[in-house]
Amino acid sequence: MRKAIFPGSFDPITLGHEDIIKRAIPLFDEIIIAIGVNAEKKYMFSLDERKRFIEETFKNEPKISVITYEGLTIELCQKFNADFILRGLRNPADFEFEKAIAHTNRHLSKIETVFLLTAASTSYISSSIVRDVIRNKGEYQKLVPKAVVVAKK
Predict the structure, then answer these.
(1) 83: domain CATH number?
(2) Is residue 41 annotated as a catalytic residue, yes or no?
(3) 90 carries an active-site annotation
(4) Is 0.85 surpassed by the pTM of this model?
(5) Which helix (H) or strand (E) element contains residue 66?
């Protein structure tokens, strides 16, 4: 069984995340979207909200489950018997950052990282940009799945 963990803070989930997940569905038997908790990070959306956004977005996809976690992603992979970490790449800076993490994870475990390039139409979207647009009362609706739009009204 090909099982992947897609880790992130998803604060909030964006159309870029959604695109990566939808394109990964045919590649894996199961995808666990894992919302990481970092006590030092200040989030715009609560953990429950972020989880609800993702669950609502993928409510009709049986291959997808959503969990929250603390600690190392490789330990989470071991706990759930996942052989892959799924990551999206938007640009060369993402690649350099993600490559270092993937090498470290592979050195510490047998977990492989699978990278998917974001679609050109969503490659400029990041959660931090979305948060800035929301804070400044901009048209964030064009950047996120419907579940986030409904929640912010």
Answers:
(1) 3.40.50.620
(2) yes
(3) yes
(4) yes
(5) strand 64-69
| Structural domain total, the chain | 1
Half-sphere exposure of 88 (CA within 13 A, CB side): 27
Q: What are the E-state strand segments in the chain? A: 3-8, 30-36, 64-69, 84-89, 112-117
How many C-alpha atoms does 37 have within 13 Å on its Cβ side?
10
Six-digit token string for 112: 């492989």
Q: Which among 23, 63, 90, 131 is annotated as catalytic?
A: 90
Give residue-wise pLDDT tens across range 29-83.
999 999 999 878 889 999 999 999 999 999 999 999 999 999 999 999 999 999 9
Establish whether 17 is a catalytic residue. yes
Q: How far is CA 114 from CA 35, 51, 94, 108, in A?
A: 18, 23, 14, 16
Residue 29: domain span:
3-152
d(CA 7, CA 32): 8
- 120, two tokens: 């050109």
